[in-house]
Amino acid sequence: MKRAAILIALVLFAFQASAWGEAAGKKRAELDTAKKAEAAAEAKQPQEAGKVTKLEGTAEIFRGEDKFPAAVGFVVREGDRIEVAAKSYMEITLFNVPGKPADGEKNPTVLTLSENAKLTIKARRVEPSGDITTQLELKEGKLGSNVKDGRKAGWKERRDRARARARGRSYRVTRSNYQVKTPTAIAGVRGTEFIVAVTPTKTFVYVKSGRVWVKDLVKGEIRTVGRKRLLEIGMNGFGTMFKADAPVEESMGSHSFSPDFNPARYAAKPSMEMPGAEPEVGEETVGKDVEDKMDQTRATQDSSDVPDPTSNVEPAIAPEPGGETGGGGGGEPGPPEPETLPDPPPPPPPPQG
């Protein structure tokens, strides 16, 4: 009798424990689902992108149906549209981790907007991979970008990579996928300093340091703009690549802007650095082609200790026509030099007496 009672009690306890476990598992699943839904909802919310750190004159920030006067300390978000007034300029410092502002951040990305600039922050977020994506759209004016996003110096990255390999661990550098779109082009970089200017008919891309990959939105071609170079993109596609001497740098770097702005007028000679042929790509891949080009370069960089293509190393420049001969001068290549000099002609016969 006692054994039967004990057996019945054990069965009831097992049944109850199973019910408890099932309820607990269901509760955990509900919590996980709620957390995922909360994370998804949070991801859809506009992230805080940065804040205004300098303002000369006046500017306005449009957020949906609302309009705010810009001021130092004002926090800008994804989706904000910024318009700078005439005779004004502003500086925005982006947070290294979007949505998580922190004081004293090292190596932040800084944006500089000229007068009459019209900029929209389309996206500024952290991807599931940990990469930081920034998408800006410049309708008019000039936008200077010093892209760092908290990136460590090259020697520190190599040091940390070597330490990870020595311990048998994988090492991955957080990428900065930074793009600026204009009516005629899209420029993509990973850590560099460059300026984009947009007029009613042209886009100008000036690279101060590093390299920028530019895709024109007319023909879908991609070009690389190296350090101290100026590329113009018109309504019909790519224009001329110029060497950016001091007058060009001063023109692009100033805070003044007007619809007839044209820094190419200060350029000396066209640069022949632009490659002649690039694969054509479709409109539907705008932005991704630029990212793929950067990923290919970065993959090569990660597999060896070659210098970063976005460093300040001056890229090789093709010879320019009309240059001095010898020692790497420009112009069409001449015939190869003979291995030995020909014998001199015999002397003339002596005059007859």
Which class do the helix and strand fractions yield?
alpha+beta
Proportion in helices:
10-25%
> What sort of overall outline do the alpha carbons produce when their principal axes are compared?
elongated
Strand proportion: 25-35%
Question: Mind explaining what this structure looks like?
Answer:
With 353 residues, the chain is of the alpha+beta class. It has a domain at 48-266: Jelly Rolls (Sandwich). It is 22% helix and 30% strand. It contains 4 helices and 17 strands. It has helices at residues 2-44, 154-166, 246-253, 288-302, and strands at 48-56, 59-63, 66-69, 75-77, 81-84, 89-94, 110-113, 118-126, 132-146, 176-181, 185-189, 193-198, 203-209, 212-216, 222-225, 229-234, 237-243. It has a 17-stranded mixed β-sheet that branches. β14 (212-216) and β15 form a beta hairpin. The longest helix is centred in the N-terminal third of the chain and has 43 residues, at 2-44. The protein is elongated and about 105 Å long. It starts with a helix and ends in a 51-residue tail after the last helix. 31% of the residues are buried.
Attribute tags:
353 residues, alpha+beta, Jelly Rolls, 17-stranded mixed beta sheet, 4 helices, 17 strands, 30% strand
Chain-wise SSE layout:
Layout: H1 2-44, E1 48-56, E2 59-63, E3 66-69, E4 75-77, E5 81-84, E6 89-94, E7 110-113, E8 118-126, E9 132-146, H2 154-166, E10 176-181, E11 185-189, E12 193-198, E13 203-209, E14 212-216, E15 222-225, E16 229-234, E17 237-243, H3 246-253, H4 288-302
Parallel strand pairs: 9-10
Antiparallel strand pairs: 1-4, 1-6, 2-3, 2-5, 5-8, 6-7, 7-9, 8-9, 9-12, 10-11, 11-14, 12-13, 13-16, 14-15, 16-17
